[in-house]
Amino acid sequence: xxxxxxxxxxxxxxxxxxxxxxxxxxxxxxxxxxxxxxxxxxxxxxxxxxxxxxxxxxxxxxxxxxxxxxxxxxxxxxxxxxxxxxxxxxxxxxxxxxxxxxxxxxxxxxxxxxxxxxxxxxxxxxxxxxxxxxxxxxxxxxxxxxxxxxxxxxxxxxxxxxxxxxxxxxxxxxxxxxxxxxxxxxxxxxxxxxxxxxxxxxxxxxxxxxxxxxxxxxxxxxxxxxxxxxxxxxxxxxxxxxxxxxxxxxxxxxxxxxxxxxxxxxxxxxxxxxxxxxxxxxxxxxxxxxxxxxxxxxxxxxxxxxxxxxxxxxxxxxxxxxxxxxxxxxxxxxxxxxxxxxxxxxxxxxxxxxxxxxxxxxxxxxxxxxxxxxxxxxxxxxxxxxxxxxxxxxxxxxxxxxxxxxxxxxxxxxxxxxxxxxxxxxxxxxxxxxxxxxxxxxxxxxxxxxxxxxxxxxxxxxxxxxxxxxxxxxxxxxxxxxxxxxx
Length: 487
Hints:
Blueprint: E1 4-5, E2 22-26, E3 29-33, E4 49-55, E5 61-69, E6 84-91, E7 97-103, E8 109-114, E9 122-126, E10 148-151, E11 157-163, H1 170-173, E12 184-190, E13 197-206, E14 221-230, E15 233-240, E16 245-251, E17 259-266, E18 291-294, E19 297-305, E20 313-319, E21 343-344, E22 347-350, E23 356-358, E24 379-381, E25 394-398, E26 403-410, E27 414-422, E28 425-431, E29 438-444, E30 454-455, E31 464-473, E32 476-485
Parallel strand pairs: 21-26
Antiparallel strand pairs: 1-5, 2-3, 3-4, 4-5, 6-7, 7-8, 8-9, 10-11, 11-12, 12-13, 14-15, 15-16, 16-17, 18-19, 19-20, 22-32, 23-26, 24-25, 25-32, 26-31, 27-30, 27-32, 28-29, 28-31
Protein name: Glycosyl hydrolases family 43
Keywords: Carbohydrate metabolism, Glycosidase, Hydrolase, Polysaccharide degradation, Xylan degradation
Pfam families: Glyco_hydro_43 (PF04616)
């Protein structure tokens, strides 16, 4: 197996595009299941499923296990016309591993099975009623979307799913032809065979339009069902109607009485410390992920958007605090990611690990495919094409006033900084606060790829952010920076 050392955000190599990440521990390894975007793709999830894993005692060593399931393995998709969306995996009572997934907007959920978490998986069955009708196959049925699966401690099996973009948005999605219900998140129990439904789906979280008086006001359900049982409480993670945020609801029961509990993460840090959408710290759009406890630490997995579109998303993870009462506090986007300590203030760092990215006028919602023109907005991108090695992701189109931010570093022994960029003519202003005082100025020119060393103050902290603001003419591409320590 190929071993790759990586623990910063994004948590996989820069050439890999895994959104909708579901983290699960099987044995002594943490597995990441998710959709598989294509760099510069034309729609979501154009590639086949792949699986990555890391030992629980070393979250920097991620192993790629290759293709786990191909689009054309689904009997309803022999030509691979439909993309594989947002899977989740659970180990059945028989010891095998069951992957639940959907095909684009096909109103049906499928199940694949494997003998190992990483696969390979083979098609197993559709989720269906005892009479053989598939879930979502009848008029008035619930629209099955973004499955989350739980095998409870007592062996009972619960499947969570749903889609709630709002009734006014449905015609644009072209999924209302069968008059399927889109009222929120649902749960249904499955028989021991892992695919036959027991009873009827039950609504557990409402859509925004039906949220008045429920406690979910402002955070009604959109998509991205994910479920965990922690101690004796069920934690249901979902993406709200706001898109950028992952929220959660809790209950003492797996199939009823869920109450809104809070926000786990936003892929623009909206909501954190009162931050509003107008002050977004990154370019934002849909979000999807799940919770996992690794030894004594809790993490929330989610995704970010690159290449000025929604269809080249990358896996991210952050430490998240769980209080003694069981409440999770909203996590902050960082560059350090699965590191529970700040990054060392020495060495070369790729610009693609920025957790803050804004133009002089701020950040904005990321459209489905791309901004209509490059304009003033910086963005993460790579040299084409989509590939499986040799990543070279960087930040393109840094224009006057654009900022890239990196959190966090131990800068107590850091003495100087170099910046690698191309294009543009001007300087990068270095600070440790988004709008704080400038601690260094690094000149850059289009003709010079790497700047000279510029000294940094000697009173920097053990947990410090770095912000690089471009000032100058033209557009600069920020590729990397190097921190030089006294050691």
